[in-house]
């Protein structure tokens, strides 16, 4: 049983999209990046919109080819809209649980808090007093939360899809293919966004 | 003529009566000359019987002595049996199998067996100049030996002689003395104490496997059950228990002399094993679509070939090896080239049927690998020792590596903008385990040093970055920052978004294996 598990793990070792492309292609339009970014190369973008029924509270899950997922705010999330600023971020989601206490050890990442789709990751309070909860969106083991945004909340606004990520989650090996079943693809997400724009004007 | 003395006679008589074979008697008489065991079994037993029947009045206390004094020797004390004892009790007719060696020193010390073994070795088609014989005997032989020794110990003490257990010749030794000469002749190579080529013969005797079991009761801490081993009664454990048990206790728990048996040992198939040969060298990788090891997911190959396969295939064929272990001083990604002198590697060839290659032949092998593909190149290919391979792993942890990377910048740059990079020395970076390997590595922060950097400007959005770094530094993550989990990173230093388009390993600074001038 153990041997089989390790064998399966071995398969996931390699990244699927290498960075190389012909140099000539690079030279054509140097200013606009025509080469796919790191995120484009290695991650698939999945979305969950109106999480927990809250309008426009959209999350973006970046799924690496090795099945690790990075939870981020989708560009349509209210926090990222013009004129907002973040006052504080709190990883203490309940009296007994702080995501900051999460500790994993070893290759199997033992000890990480197990999350279900609607498990809260953190609460973000904006300067105008509105509080938002960010959710896991997928089932899996919490590996780490981004502590840099505690010290510098501005990163969350400036680079929500890279340095401003919220958390890193490792789904169970057996569930890795099914983990995105409840999520929207990029195309489906864009569809939802465009439908919103036609239905009602965007709220500030 | 057997080198036996007067004092050996009562010992020999006692052992024969108990059911020992002629050669075991010689062993307990401490006959230490190999040639004494090389006679045929028939000759040996005949001479021994002759010696024993030539007895004086001393042995007349023994019940069977009367019989012996009367008739011709061949009928009286038959080897491996004592008719008066056995048949008087209505037991089965005696099998003639020795109670001490269980037949190992009887039927198996013959040309027939030797031929069987040498045929098996020849059929496996190995090349070898010498060989070592490895013999595996059932654990219960130690128990029976101990019982025989205790049995005769009483006898010699009465005669105020001394018989140390260490003076008794071991079954294994006597067996090797008889078999080695024959094997050596048939295979036309010397049999030596240490060799790279090992021929293994083994024996089993299921009938008496239970003989060891009583030791678990007397000495339970010697027998710890382990998952891997089939039986907890290993030879080593049994020997240990025998050292601990007192003579009295042993005699109470186990018959001295040991009981007779119905069958002789059965021999296991002959095994052949050649020690591993290690081939080392350095490899260059010129392709950006070649993995180091085979890339297979769900039984499907995702990418053609691999560095490992390209190097090992010709070696496996030439050395006629059963398998291999490929290792290298670190490794690079699929899309990264390895330039310069290349990266040290070592291949352990398992059970090679051919192991001797001179420098010329090894050089030809190197050429064969180089001709087979333009995706890799090997150099300094040579046969090395197992110990030498440790140098290579040293390299993985301790030595520096240098790289060149093609960088894209989002903001527009001029030559001046990248000058400052060359001034940065011994830059400390803290790298959290990159997300791309986090599924198979523990989460940790690694402190690494980037010793030096230099740049070559290309255009407003591109430049080449050369770096010399500590072993274990993730270059790609140093450039793009890996979600800010590597700090500092190039993007932070240049205050713009950057990406890495191409990466080459320029050198792996390990001075092993030794360079071979072309």
UniProtKB/TrEMBL annotation, chain A:
Record's GO cellular component terms: dendrite; filopodium tip; growth cone; lamellipodium; nuclear speck
Matching Pfam families: GCV_H
Gene name per UniProt: ABITRAM
Protein name: Protein Abitram
Family: Belongs to the ABITRAM family.
Protein's cellular compartments: Cell projection, Dendrite; Cell projection, Growth cone; Cell projection, Lamellipodium; Nucleus speckle
Coiled coil: none
Species of origin: Denticeps clupeoides
Keyword annotations: Cell projection, Nucleus
Molecular functions per Gene Ontology: actin filament binding; actin monomer binding
One GO process term, biological-process aspect: regulation of actin filament polymerization
């Amino acid at each position: 049983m153990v041997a089989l598990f390790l064998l399966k793990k071995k398969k996931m070792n390699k990244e699927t999209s290498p960075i190389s492309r012909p140099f000539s292609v690079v030279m054509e339009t140097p200013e606009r990046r025509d080469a796919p970014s790191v995120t484009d190369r290695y991650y698939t973008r999945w979305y969950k919109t109106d999480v927990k029924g809250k309008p426009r509270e959209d999350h973006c899950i970046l799924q690496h080819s090795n099945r690790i997922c990075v939870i981020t705010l989708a560009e349509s999330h209210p926090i990222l809209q013009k004129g907002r600023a973040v006052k504080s971020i709190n990883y203490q989601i309940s009296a007994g649980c702080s995501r900051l206490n999460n500790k994993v050890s070893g290759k199997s990442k033992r000890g990480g808090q197990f999350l279900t789709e609607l498990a809260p990751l953190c609460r973000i309070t904006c300067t105008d007093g509105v509080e938002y909860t960010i959710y896991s969106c997928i089932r899996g083991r919490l590996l780490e939360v981004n502590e840099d945004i505690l010290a510098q909340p501005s990163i969350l606004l400036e680079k929500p899809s890279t340095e401003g990520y919220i958390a890193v989650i490792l789904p169970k090996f057996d569930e890795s293919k099914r983990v995105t079943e409840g999520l929207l693809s990029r195309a489906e997400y864009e569809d939802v966004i465009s439908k919103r724009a036609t239905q009602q004007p965007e709220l500030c | 003529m057997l080198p036996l003395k007067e004092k050996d006679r009562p010992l020999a008589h006692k052992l024969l009566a108990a059911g020992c074979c002629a050669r075991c008697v010689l062993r307990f008489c401490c006959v230490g000359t190999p040639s004494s065991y090389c006679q045929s079994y028939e000759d040996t037993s005949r001479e021994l019987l002759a010696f024993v029947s030539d007895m004086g009045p001393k042995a007349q206390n023994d019940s069977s002595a009367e019989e012996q004094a009367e008739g011709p020797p061949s009928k009286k004390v038959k080897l491996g049996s004592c008719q008066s004892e056995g048949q008087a009790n209505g037991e089965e007719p005696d099998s003639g199998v020795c109670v001490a060696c269980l037949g190992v020193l009887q039927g198996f010390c013959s040309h027939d067996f030797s031929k069987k073994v040498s045929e098996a070795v020849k059929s496996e088609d190995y090349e070898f100049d010498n060989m070592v014989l490895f013999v595996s005997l059932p654990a219960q032989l130690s128990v029976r030996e101990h019982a025989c020794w205790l049995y005769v110990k009483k006898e010699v003490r009465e005669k105020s002689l001394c018989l140390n257990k260490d003076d008794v010749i071991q079954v294994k030794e006597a067996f090797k003395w008889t078999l080695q000469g024959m094997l050596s002749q048939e295979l036309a190579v010397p049999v030596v104490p240490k060799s790279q080529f090992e021929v293994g013969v083994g024996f089993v005797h299921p009938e008496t496997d239970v003989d060891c079991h009583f030791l678990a009761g007397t000495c339970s801490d010697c027998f710890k059950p382990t998952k891997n081993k089939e039986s907890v009664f290993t030879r080593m454990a049994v020997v240990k228990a025998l050292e601990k048990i007192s003579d009295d206790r042993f005699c109470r728990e186990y018959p001295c002399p040991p009981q007779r048996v119905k069958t002789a040992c059965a021999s296991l198939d002959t095994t052949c094993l050649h020690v591993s040969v290690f081939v080392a060298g350095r490899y260059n990788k010129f392709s950006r679509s070649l993995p180091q090891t085979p890339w297979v997911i769900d039984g499907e190959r995702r990418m053609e070939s691999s560095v490992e396969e390209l190097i090992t295939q010709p070696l496996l064929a030439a050395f006629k090896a059963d398998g291999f272990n490929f290792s290298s001083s670190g490794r690079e990604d699929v899309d990264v080239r390895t330039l310069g002198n290349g990266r040290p590697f070592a291949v352990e060839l398992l059970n090679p049927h051919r192991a001797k290659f001179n420098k010329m032949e090894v050089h030809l092998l190197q050429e064969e690998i180089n001709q087979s593909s333009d995706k890799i190149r090997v150099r300094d290919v040579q046969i090395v020792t197992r110990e030498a391979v440790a140098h290579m792993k040293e390299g993985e942890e301790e030595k520096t590596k240098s790289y060149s990377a093609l960088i894209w910048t989002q903001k527009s740059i001029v030559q001046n903008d990248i000058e400052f990079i060359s001034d940065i020395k011994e830059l400390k970076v803290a790298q959290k385990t990159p997300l791309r390997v986090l599924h198979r590595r523990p989460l940790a922060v690694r402190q690494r040093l980037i010793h030096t950097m230099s740049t070559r400007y290309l255009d407003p959005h591109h430049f080449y970055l050369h770096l010399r770094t500590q072993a274990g530094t993730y270059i790609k993550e140093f450039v793009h920052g890996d979600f800010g989990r590597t700090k500092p990173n190039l993007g932070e230093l240049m205050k713009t978004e950057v990406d890495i388009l191409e990466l080459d390993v320029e050198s792996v600074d390990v001075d092993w294996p030794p360079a071979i001038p072309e």
